């Protein structure tokens, strides 16, 4: 019966729908690729896209062909060599039924299975594109390993590539071999009979060939394992130790030779037809691997090494120490004994005037709310939760500065496609405040602020304030318009107090053009937006800005880099530039102790979500190879080869020759804002806790191991590490103060033990690269200076310093005053400074009221030196309290800013004096009460309590006079010692 018209229509409809679906999927895929080509091309990095994806495609095709052809040939040969007749049995009858069911689709499966497996293999292999490119573009390190005498490039570049090739070929042999065996079994070439397992001659040859190939590859792997022992981290120390060198490495060589011999026996068996010898050889190889590869090394370790471990492992520990320090850039750490004192004497800080004048009181982790309340102006602006520390010249002096950009807050924009993608496109302006001082009322002392921007650092005329590319920019924006068109983008408020906004048109080259219909269609598909396709807000000159986060932008353009978790802004040559640090890393450096980057870079800021830790990646080699800049206005990216001696970076320069510029092309102004990266410093300090020790005996005993203290400002219940801090300080032995990244060390304790919060070490990395000249890097940039403190004197660590603050009675009483009216007292960052011949701790104290629009203001400064504690409205006063009334220090907050001398009322001075006098009276009353209790004189104790009550009330009145608030009414509550803040 001929098919009906309806049947013919249905039969034509299905393939038509399939073709349409394939075309649609193909066009969507093409649009994604085309969009990437436009994006990379607009930035001038098309080479990266083409080289990366070209390499992936080449690897994919090679792996696909090798896997699919191998599996196909194995299936085909097994099928064609199937027995013509197989003896009847119940099992064979079942197999015959399977054959009958498979026969209609056999040819399809013969092709489909290899294609699918080839696709999986190609996809997996393509992920190794960086390994392949490094192998073909590698250069020598110029240094040989201490065991085999091979250049380090062999371990970082050649060995991973060979391991990738052999691993892939092993998977091919196993998968193709198993596919062939299953086919032989299905078609009777291998079967169970009464006499046992039967294998046809063709099946035996098939098995022998794949067994021989597998054994050859296993032999190669055994031989490579000899070198891989130098990268092992399974022992107490990384690298090949005594047992590895004297038992494992020789055994691996024996097993490699034995595997090749057994492989030859399988090939010989094909021709002579005797299979007993290769089977016996295989069994012997397995037994040898167990005995020689496992039991023998255990015997050597247990009975030869363990009883005399230090003497047997000495040279290998030396290798581990030396090469770990080399791999992490710790070799030239300058170690200085620091005989710290804990006695605070008058004038002790006079010689440290450069350091004390730059002590940073403004905590960048706390003042974001203050920046927001004072400088946000509109709901569609925002500041990052953690601000950045930089330095800027002011009247000839370089000052530490807390800096932020006023970014667009898309959550504060009225909803709607036009609002979110056309009208509100950018943030506006940089806000910067002095790090070492505040205004009289505790607010930041701004050096650049307002809309339009004004301040000692410049104004809107001296730099481009618009922030189109930032950490909080929306996913995409449509910008640009033909010349003469009225601007539509919301630019900024006309002024700080204005209700109207000025308009702006983007004039840069920041993204691909979407002025033609094809490009609009491509990006409409990419962002799944019909508005982008249909809106009349998109014109012939429109550009689309996307991938706007500076870190993510650099990651796309330099995919071989691990990017630092913090991008920081700087005003450079009239532009706002985001500076991003990039690292080359490896996990293959011989004898180097591995670190997990996520764990090493985690601290109280990353744990709280304020900053980003590095990814969970294991490395044992790291270099800050690249400094990148991202222009906040047009998104242009520049990559500078910062560590031009790094062999890994040199290899990537060969791969992408047009993408990296030498750092000699950096301007002096940019160089002045480059700083030592935090994440690299965190990794290095984690290692230096152990590897500051270069003496093998001390290193072996672990008696002088250190650790980074937990953040004491979070209380005793937390175990997250204290973050490092940027400070301008003069280290002992330095000629002048330098912008540095710092961290203290306390003794290492095992898990579960109580930490000893005494100071053992202090590390500072010189973080300032500037020299005032274009393209010239400071020779001291990155220099690590480590102070080792004596064990004969107990110098308090950060935890002890915080405990001193919390337990000091006078401080506690004063903090209670600050808490009046439901105000919250917040401890700022606890800074450690090696000055005055000892260790000075400085902590700003912030007070935040309970209102919805409240923000922290700096109200007090806590200082300790040894066991002495100071607590005052200014750093200068607090230091004088500690150092017998005259510290000799010059501080940045001497004289409150925000009021001219003519405006400074005498009541302000008298109020300060009243407060200090009241606190001293309270302290004296407390001491009188303690003495009376000790003597059992309760009458005197009652009189002392009355004096204390009166002193606290006077302090409350003085505090109210200082702040301009009404004095607290009612009676003052009886004081009791508390742990403040």
From TrEMBL:
Keywords: Cell membrane, Membrane, Transmembrane, Transmembrane helix
Membrane topology term: Multi-pass membrane protein
Biased composition, class Basic and acidic residues, residue ranges: 489-504
Compartments where located: Cell membrane
Location of the region described as Disordered in the Swiss-Prot/TrEMBL record: 482-510, 885-907, 957-981
Biased composition, class Polar residues, residue ranges: 897-907
Membrane-spanning ranges: 12-35, 55-75, 108-129, 161-187, 207-224, 253-272, 279-299
Matches recorded under Pfam families: UPF0182
Domain of life where this protein originates: Bacteria
Stated family: Belongs to the UPF0182 family.
Protein name: UPF0182 protein HGG74_04420
Taxonomy of the source species: Bacteria, Bacillati, Actinomycetota, Actinomycetes, Micrococcales
């Amino acid at each position: 019966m001929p098919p009906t018209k309806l049947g013919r229509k249905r039969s034509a409809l299905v393939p038509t729908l399939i073709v349409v679906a394939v075309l649609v999927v193909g066009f969507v895929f093409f649009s994604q690729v085309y969009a990437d080509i436009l994006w990379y091309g607009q930035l001038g990095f098309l080479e990266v896209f083409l080289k990366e994806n070209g390499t992936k495609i080449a690897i994919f095709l090679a792996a696909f062909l090798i896997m699919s052809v191998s599996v196909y040939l194995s299936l085909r040969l097994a099928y064609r060599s199937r027995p013509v007749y197989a003896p009847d049995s119940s099992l064979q009858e079942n197999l015959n039924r399977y054959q009958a069911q498979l026969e209609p689709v056999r040819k399809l499966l013969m092709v489909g299975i290899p294609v699918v497996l080839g696709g999986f293999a190609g996809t997996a292999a393509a992920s190794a594109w960086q390994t392949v490119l490094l192998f073909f573009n590698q250069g020598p390190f110029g240094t040989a390993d201490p065991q085999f005498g091979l250049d380090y490039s062999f371990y970082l570049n050649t060995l991973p590539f060979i391991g990738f090739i052999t691993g892939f070929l092993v998977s091919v042999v196993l998968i193709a071999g198993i596919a062939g065996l299953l086919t032989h079994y299905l078609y009777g070439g291998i079967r169970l009979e009464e006499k046992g397992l039967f294998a046809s001659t063709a099946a035996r040859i098939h098995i022998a060939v794949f067994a021989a190939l597998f054994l050859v590859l296993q032999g190669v792997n055994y031989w490579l394992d000899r070198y891989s022992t130098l990268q092992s981290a399974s022992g107490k120390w990384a690298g090949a130790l005594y047992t590895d060198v004297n038992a494992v490495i020789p055994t691996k060589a024996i097993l490699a030779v034995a595997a090749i011999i057994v492989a030859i026996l399988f090939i010989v068996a094909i021709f002579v037809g005797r299979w007993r010898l290769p089977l016996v050889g295989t069994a012997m190889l397995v037994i040898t691997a167990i005995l020689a590869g496992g039991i023998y090394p255990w015997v050597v370790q247990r009975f030869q090494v363990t009883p005399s471990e230090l003497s047997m492992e000495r040279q290998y520990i030396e290798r581990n120490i030396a090469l770990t320090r080399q791999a992490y850039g710790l070799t030239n750490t300058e170690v200085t004994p620091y005989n710290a004192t804990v006695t605070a004497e008058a004038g002790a800080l006079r010689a440290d005037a450069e350091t004390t004048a730059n002590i940073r009181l403004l905590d960048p982790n706390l003042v974001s709310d203050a920046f927001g309340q004072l400088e946000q102006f509109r709901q569609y602006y925002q500041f990052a939760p953690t601000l950045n520390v930089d330095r800027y010249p002011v009247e000839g002096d370089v000052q530490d500065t807390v800096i932020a950009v006023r970014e667009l807050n898309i959550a504060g924009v009225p909803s709607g496609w036009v609002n979110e993608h056309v009208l509100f496109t950018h943030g506006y302006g940089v806000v910067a405040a002095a790090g070492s001082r505040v205004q009289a009322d505790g607010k930041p002392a701004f050096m650049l602020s307002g809309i339009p921007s004004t301040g000692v650092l410049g104004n809107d005329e001296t730099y481009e304030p618009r922030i189109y590319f930032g950490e909080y920019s929306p996913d995409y924006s449509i910008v640009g318009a033909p010349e003469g068109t009225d601007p539509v983008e919301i630019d900024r408020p006309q002024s700080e107090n204005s209700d109207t906004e000025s308009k702006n048109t983007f004039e840069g080259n920041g993204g691909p053009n979407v002025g033609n219909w094809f490009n609009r269609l491509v990006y409409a598909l990419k962002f799944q937006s019909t508005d982008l396709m249909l809106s009349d807000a998109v014109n012939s000159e429109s550009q689309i800005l996307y991938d706007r986060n500076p870190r993510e932008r650099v990651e796309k353009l330099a995919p071989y880099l691990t990017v630092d978790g913090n991008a920081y802004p700087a005003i450079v040559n009239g532009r706002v530039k985001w500076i991003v640090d990039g690292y080359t890393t490896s996990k293959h450096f011989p004898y180097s102790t591995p670190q997990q980057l996520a764990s090493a870079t985690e601290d109280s800021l990353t744990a709280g979500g304020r900053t980003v830790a590095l990814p969970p990646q294991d490395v044992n080699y790291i270099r800050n190879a690249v400094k990148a800049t991202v222009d906040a206005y047009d998104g242009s990216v520049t990559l500078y080869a910062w560590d031009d001696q790094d062999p890994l970076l040199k290899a990537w320069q060969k791969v992408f020759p047009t993408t990296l510029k030498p750092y000699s092309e950096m301007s002096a102004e940019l160089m002045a804002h480059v700083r030592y990266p935090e994440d690299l410093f965190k990794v290095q300090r984690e290692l230096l806790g152990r590897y500051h020790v270069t003496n093998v005996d001390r290193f072996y005993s672990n008696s002088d191991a250190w650790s980074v203290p937990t953040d004491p400002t979070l209380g005793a219940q937390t175990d997250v590490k204290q973050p490092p801090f940027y400070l301008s300080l003069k280290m002992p032995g330095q000629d002048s103060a330098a912008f540095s990244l710092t961290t203290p060390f306390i003794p290492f304790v095992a898990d579960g033990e109580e930490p000893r919060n005494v100071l053992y070490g202090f590390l500072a990395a010189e973080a300032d690269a500037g020299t005032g000249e274009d393209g010239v890097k400071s020779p001291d940039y990155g220099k690590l200076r480590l102070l080792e403190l004596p064990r004969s004197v107990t110098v308090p660590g950060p935890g002890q310093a915080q405990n001193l603050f919390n337990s000091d009675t006078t401080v506690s009483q004063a903090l209670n005053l600050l808490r009046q009216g439901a105000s919250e007292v917040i401890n700022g960052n606890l800074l450690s400074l090696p000055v005055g011949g000892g260790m000075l701790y400085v902590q700003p104290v912030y007070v935040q009221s309970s209102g919805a629009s409240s923000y922290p203001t700096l109200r007090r400064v806590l200082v300790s030196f040894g066991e002495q504690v100071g607590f005052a409205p200014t750093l200068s006063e607090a230091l004088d309290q500690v150092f017998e009334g005259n510290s000799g220090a010059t501080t940045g907050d001497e004289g409150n800013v925000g009021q001219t001398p003519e405006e400074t009322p005498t009541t302000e001075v008298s109020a300060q004096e009243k407060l200090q006098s009241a606190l001293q009276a309270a302290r004296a009353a407390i001491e009188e009460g303690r003495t009376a209790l000790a003597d059992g004189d309760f009458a005197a104790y009652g009189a002392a309590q009355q004096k204390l009550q009166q002193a606290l009330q006077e302090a409350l009145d003085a505090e109210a006079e200082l702040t301009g608030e009404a004095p607290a009414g009612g009676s003052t509550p009886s004081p009791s010692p508390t742990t403040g803040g």
